[in-house]
Amino acid sequence: MGCQDEIIVQEVCEIYDKISKLQSLKPSKDVNMLFTQLVLTCMPPNPIDVTKLCKRVQEMRSKLIRLCGEAEGLLESHFSTLLGSYEHPLDHINIFPYYSNYLKLSLLEFTILSKHCTQVPSRVAFIGSGPLPLTSIVLASLHLRTTSFHNYDIDPSANSKAVSLVSADPDLSNRMSFHTIDIMDVATDLRDYEVIFLAALVGMDKEEKARIIDHLVKYMAPGALLMLRSAHGARGFLYPIIDPCDLRGFEVLSVFHPTDEVINSVIIARKYSLPLHKLEQGLGPIILPSKCSEIQVFNPLNHGNMIEDLALEEQLT
């Protein structure tokens, strides 16, 4: 581990120590300050592989990801309740402090999706939508204006808050539905979606995430697309990391690692049209396409040329 990596690990450990001693992770001056400090520490692009750090740091990272998830849920719940107090909640959605990040992330995901989807999907699922389903709201409002969104969350209170946000909007309330259920208990209904989004914090560690992905590939329709949020470099202290080469049963189409304030990496994969065991028969081991390791940098300052740049990249590959 290089000197710079040691500095980052030490800084993250010190912040974790302070966060772990907080009495509550609900939004407050101290909570906001510490998590802002953590994000700013992990945000700069860094080639560190956090999955290969020592056992002590791995244990700290696992606990930190769960604390980040809890804090994120409480933050979204707080602002969802606040927005729900307005007669027209979505008119005030920009009071959420990270709304601009969701605008950028949703544009990124829509642009990636447009490269690999031949037509506008009619039905999309978002797994882990939470009390403030900003991705679904932004995509439905700005990018996929005829698509139906089916939002899944295990928490009934989260869905209750989310419903109150869109109920006053005649268009979104007609195109959005919310299902309170563990996604591991959803089977045949998964075949109804052309695209499934998996939130970053659904599956808080590698093993749990793998079980969910295995469940999805079992029941998704052949040829359907899966969009996953991962993390890269030091950002892996904030969110679980998905190794694209672990997506058995999927063809990994593209991997994006943003370098700006959009923290999550984005992976898009397509379920194979044939079961993997049939693909492997007589062919030897399946080698994932070269795009498994493809990295495309998202430049938030270049929105106007992003689609053209990606189109050029597609031609080159």
TrEMBL record:
InterPro entries: Nicotian_synth, SAM-dependent_MTases_sf
Family label: Belongs to the nicotianamine synthase (NAS)-like family.
PANTHER family assigned to the protein according to its UniProt record, in alphabetical order: NICOTIANAMINE SYNTHASE 3
A Pfam short name: NAS
Record flagged with keyword Cell inner membrane: no
MF term (GO), any: nicotianamine synthase activity
Organism of origin: Coptis chinensis
Catalytic activity: 3 S-adenosyl-L-methionine = nicotianamine + 3 S-methyl-5'-thioadenosine + 3 H(+)
Parts of the chain that traverse the membrane: none
Function statement: Synthesizes nicotianamine, a polyamine which serves as a sensor for the physiological iron status within the plant, and/or might be involved in the transport of iron.
Enzyme Commission number(s) from the entry: 2.5.1.43
Transferase found in the keyword field: yes
Keywords, ordered alphabetically: S-adenosyl-L-methionine, Transferase
GO biological process: nicotianamine biosynthetic process
This protein's name: Nicotianamine synthase
Top EC class for this record: transferase
